[in-house]
Amino acid sequence: MTVSRHIAAILMLMAMAGQAGAQQQVNAENFDLADYKGKIVYVDFWASWCTPCRASFPFMAELADTHADKLAIVAINVDENLADAKAFLSDYETPFDIVFDQSGMLAEAFNVPGMPTSFLHDRNGELIGQHVGFRKKDMEAIRQWIKDNVDN
Amino acid sequence: MIHGDYSRHTGKILLAGLLSILLSGCSSLGVKPWERGTLARPEMALDSQPVASAMDDHIYFSKEASSGGRSFGGGGCGCN
Which one is predicted more confidently, B2 or A47? Predict the structure, then answer.
């Protein structure tokens, strides 16, 4: 009895700790770039039907681990069907925030030129630049681009 | 006289209106990059069943002793 209670307590603690470290998933209406002020922000537009986006997810997870305190990563999903996005997300570790933009209002606001596109913002929310597409050979350049801005 | 001016004026306005419709009519067409989900579905591909169409091509080639005209190179010389 006591043992099972102990286990339950430990499990609860673990769940709480997990929640504290968990990244948030919000709808487009609740996304505000200003919430990330003080950090370099990497905003990435992705969709479940976008093949290069699959390659970009482990890469973004790696970025999130490398620059944990200084870089915020926001992955904005533009799937019309939320279930498609959820199915995609179940395949990956996502140690960063996810925004669901089913109506495309954020994509419209950012004027996304292609899929995927990432936008890098400085600590004041000013746009530094954008990167369209995601290829394996781009990874090193993006890594360096972010490192330069984070260390800056 | 006044009537004539008026109709000429209306004609010009109509022409300008028609032209502007013609010129801008297609400007809002097209799918935005983030709206290509449906287009990206496999059944939306031009050749959604490559194996089936390759077999069709093979049968056509065997029967007609000609190839090409679909999606691969080569003329109808029957030499490939």
Answer: A47
B71 in any annotated domain: no
User: Which site among A44, A45, A46, A49 would you substitute to test the B interface, given the most B Cβ atoms closer than 10 Å to its Cβ?
Assistant: A49
The total domain count for chain B is 1
CATH number at A136 reads 3.40.30.10
What's the whole-number mean pLDDT along residues A75-88?
A: 95
Q: Looking at chain A from residue 81 to 140, which residues have their Cβ under 8 Å from any Cβ of chain B?
A: 81, 84, 104, 107-108, 112-115, 117
| Residue ranges making up the domain that contains A95 | 24-151
| B44 contacts in chain A (CB < 8 Å) | none
pLDDT tens digits, residue range B22-52?
A: 777 666 677 899 999 988 888 888 887 888 8
Question: Does A113 sit within 8 Å of B34, measured CB to CB?
Answer: no
Q: Is residue B48 part of a domain?
A: yes
Residue A111 confidence (pLDDT): 94
Chain B residues within an 8 Å CB radius of A104: 32, 34-35
Tokens at residue B1, please?
Answer: 């006289």
* DSSP-derived 3-state class of residue A115: coil
Average pLDDT, chain A: 88
Cα–Cα distance, A75 to A51 (Å, whole number): 15
How many domains does chain A divide into?
Answer: 1
Instruction: Answer whether residue A97 shows pLDDT above 60.
Output: yes
pLDDT for res A7: 63
Q: What are phi and psi of B8, to 5 degrees?
A: -65, -40
Could you tell me if residue A6 is inside a domain? Answer: no
Q: How far is CA B57 from CA B13, B47, B49, B66, B69, in A?
A: 56, 13, 12, 10, 10
